Amino acid sequence: MAASADSAQAAGTPAVEEQSNESRFPHSASLYVGDLSKDVIEAELYNFFNSFGATVQSVRVCRDMVTQTSLGYGYVNFATPEDAAKVYEAANFEELKGQPVRIMFSERDPTKRRSGVGNIFIKNLSAEVDNKALYDTFRVFGTVLSCRVLYDQEGNSRGIAFVQYEDAEVAKQVIAQVNDKKILDKVVKVEAYKPRRQRMLEAEETQKNFTNVFFKNVAADISDEDIMKEFENFGEIESKVLKSHDQFGRYGFVAYKDTADAQKAVSELNDKPLGADGTKLYVARAQRKSERMGRLRREFERRRTEMRAKYKDANLYIKNFSEDVTEDELRKMFEAYGTIVSVRVVKDRDGQSRQFGFVLFSSEEEATRAIQEMNGRMTADGKPLYVSRFRNKEERAQEVQRQRMMTAQNMQYQQWMTQQGGGMPPMGFNPMQQMSMQAQMAGRSGPQHGMPPMQTPMMATPNNAQQPSAAAAAPAELSAAKDKNSRNAVLGNPLFSLVQAQQPKHAPKITGMLLDQPDEAVLEYLENPAALKAALDQAYKVLVEQAPAAGKQ
């Protein structure tokens, strides 16, 4: 859609003369890239930004530490701030793999990121206003550093957005000129952004100094006049309303002139028995919907935390069962091992089983028995059932870190043992020597970075000495790597061997592409054949797509 400057004019916003890139943008050579498709890899991100004619120095797609799946955002570093500004203007909201990207200047100073200076909050936005329309509408006032429309899980606009200007004075002018003006079909509210801490303090102050009271649970034999008289006894009332609901009965609001009167009414009327059957009246400070929902979410989180603590080692994760297994059938499979609190089979949006689920026992001992008896048992589909204790995302990440630390410690010990009598066998061909001469840029145009071959002492190895694999040694050696060349040498040797076995023709280029990813991802490729296979398939696809373009050039 195009709500751009035309929308701004409709809202009473004046057109402003465009400024040059040099004067409009901050001196930052790094861009944040959001709203990325989850299957975008570093090579694709590099090629996308490189196509805008600026010198890209490096790119990074941020990933989950455990699963290595994309988090949907990343960073791109350019040679100069001018290049970053040029690409910010040209690439913002352009599509990458069918999805518009949202670009902001990267601010490395956390105090500036959290200050909220120049940041405005907009609400009651039309659902037709997307990120690009928001940017085009508000850029006419001055340099926009970032802008964002908030969406729910279904992809629908929540009608609220944030826009941050480089100049705080410009932000004040926007608030004055656009607040209570119409953008498309809705009158918007524009105000200064308030940090969460400030909002919480203001909310606490509102809670102390309230004058609005909410009541419900009115006895059936109490008349409207009598219920209102109960509230009139506590002070002067500015307004009042009484409503009725088919399911919840009568409820209403009373606005007092004085805070003390409202507080006294809540204190004395809440839980007061009224009517012939002694129905207790509910009276409390009136709350906005957002406040009520926030309170409900906090209560839900509190109860969930309590449940997790209570049943920490009694919750089991089960996978590989047949897709036609129901929750009742899953319960029957495990009920012989103890008292089951709950059972859940996870399903997709179409209601089809994803062939994994959870069984919660009443005690850790019962869960342990279930694991011992059921883990590895063959299912009707001929697959071994997988049963283990459920661990959340943070706990799994900690477990992976502990395992890697143990691997590093074991390798240090084995290396010490090697020095006592063992050694690395002589090597005739070092694959990294080839890599240092060939492209590490995944077929991309731009500066190439060679990796020096790893220098390894050549010593004889006794036949009975077990030497660690290069892949297993990587975590320990990586911790000692002090610069990029050392890091590339440590990870590149074992990675090249694995890549060459599956993609001998493109091994140097693909290895270079994979080495551009975070250490955690490369270590995962060394240790997990399935993860490596998926990465190789993606990298090969990118190389194939680039081949026609390279031929034309």
From TrEMBL:
Residues 471-548 form the PABC domain. Residues 1-11 have a biased composition (Low complexity). The keyword Cytoplasm applies. Residues 1-22 are annotated as: Disordered. It is found in: Cytoplasm; Nucleus. Gene3D superfamilies: 3.30.70.330, c-terminal domain of poly(a) binding protein. SMART domains: PolyA (SM00517), RRM (SM00360), RRM_1 (SM00361). GO terms for molecular function: mRNA 3'-UTR binding; poly(A) binding; poly(U) RNA binding. It comes from the Eukaryota. Residues 29-108, 118-195, 211-288, 314-392 form the RRM domain. Its main location: cytoplasm. The keyword Repressor does not apply. GO terms for cellular component: cytoplasmic stress granule; cytosol; nucleus; ribonucleoprotein complex. Transmembrane segments: none annotated. InterPro entries: Nucleotide-bd_a/b_plait_sf (IPR012677), PABP-dom (IPR036053), PABP_HYD_C (IPR002004), RBD_domain_sf (IPR035979), RRM_dom (IPR000504), RRM_euk-type (IPR003954). PANTHER family: RNA BINDING PROTEIN. Belongs to the polyadenylate-binding protein type-1 family. This is Polyadenylate-binding protein. It comes from Monosiga brevicollis.
